[in-house]
Design goal:
This protein is of the alpha+beta class. It is built from one helix and four strands. The longest helix has 23 residues. The chain is flat and about 55 Å long.
Length: 70
């Protein structure tokens, strides 16, 4: 049996984000959308990790790129 090459797929969210009427939910939605945009850019560059935001001490927060191998 011939073994096929595995293909890398993006594991983040690509769908349309909802526009909330409540200001607090809208702010959270914008931050989440921007996080996923940066996540996708890192995936397309082939990175394993990316930064988004800062913690309470001003240190950048690192996230792993979600990849699915099929």
């Amino acid at each position: 049996m011939e073994e096929r090459e595995k293909i890398r797929h993006f594991g983040g969210k690509l769908s349309v984000f909802v526009n909330y009427k409540d200001d607090r939910q809208a702010a959270v939605g914008r931050v989440y959308r921007n996080l996923e945009k940066k996540h996708l850019k890192a995936y397309l560059r082939g990175d394993k990790k990316f930064t988004f935001g800062r913690d309470a001490h001003g240190v950048p927060m690192w996230y792993f790129v979600q990849e699915i191998w099929l």
